[in-house]
Amino acid sequence: MPIAASFALTRPRPRSIAAALSALLVLAAPACAQTTTTFGDDPGLAHLAEEVARLAEHAEGTVGVAAYHLETGRGITLNGDESFPMASTYKVPIAVQILTMVDNGELSLRDLVEVDQKDVYLTASAISDLIDDPGLQISVHNLLEMMLQISDNIATDLLMREAGGAAAVTERMAAVGTDGIRVDRPTWALIANWLGDADIAEDNQPAPDDYRRLLESERTDASIAALNDAFNADPRDTSTPAAMSSLLQKIWNREILSEESSALLIDIMYRCQTGEARLKGSLPPGTEVAHKTGTIGQTTNDVGIIDLPGGAGHVVTVVYIKESEVESVADREPVIAQIARAVHDYFVFNRG
After folding, report:
1. What is the tens place of the pLDDT at every residue in 66-115?
2. Considering its fold, how many domains does the chain have in total?
3. Where does the pLDDT of residue 133 fall: very low under 50, low under 70, confident under 90, or very high at 90 and above?
4. CATH number of the domain residue 85 falls in
5. DSSP 263-303
6. Within a 13 Å sphere around the CA of 9, how many CA atoms are in the beta-carbon half?
């Protein structure tokens, strides 16, 4: 997985983290009970829920799904109230907080945000890849584009700071009725915690060279396993599938942002450049999907809204995978794609 799309941690032998950021560790996870629910007066939804649960078994981990047909209110969930690491899908709540501030006149999309040298660190970021010298300013609008289109981590951290910090984002989620979503850390701190620096202060970002040393330090298989176990148990920066689905519904229905801000956010998500093999992977050619991916460690996610053909409407589709025993991200992604196709086909052929 390219660095622009994900964070990663290697498994096969002790080696540099930075040298292998495109490989992900997968560890065995205990089997857990699958919990499915259906919404709406549609007896066929039980069959969809059964099929989604069957497909989810191929992830060899824990899978959370929420699918909700926007025009009819019918839907299903699988482990809908269980918390999952959001990874980069937490950039959608951050965008909502930023655009709320724009709607309230506290920010402008044209405001320029200064990029300090201390903000630039080794991560999935065009800023990190291209910028070495001080003196850069980027507009709020362009940072939103970078955060959501290419999942730029430095753009995310800059926007989180403009948003008032992680706590302000979580407070906003609670205020709009999606309190199953919590945002706790900037991206640099989330990655540092995942890599084993449990004591790092979220208000004291390491110098770029110190951060690089953390990324490049060698780890044994046993230590990496312990890091992943700790990350999987961490309640921070998590969402339930049901809560993320609710947030996407509210965005689409213009319930929490102005028409202009809602349209902008949805438009950027339609232009997401990551995760072609996930929600979009098995859909009919040309199907439009407004979505956001997330990848870290044993977690592989995609959340979004799928356009259905022939006036069949739109379906919010959230798929979270954690604790997967499947060795590579590329082999986990078909699970997301197959679930999305099952959801797509059901609502195309069962219009309610």
Report:
1. 999 999 999 999 999 999 999 999 999 999 999 999 999 999 999 999 99
2. 1
3. confident
4. 3.40.710.10
5. HHHHHHHHT--S-TTTTTTTSPTT--EEEEEEEETTEEEEE
6. 29
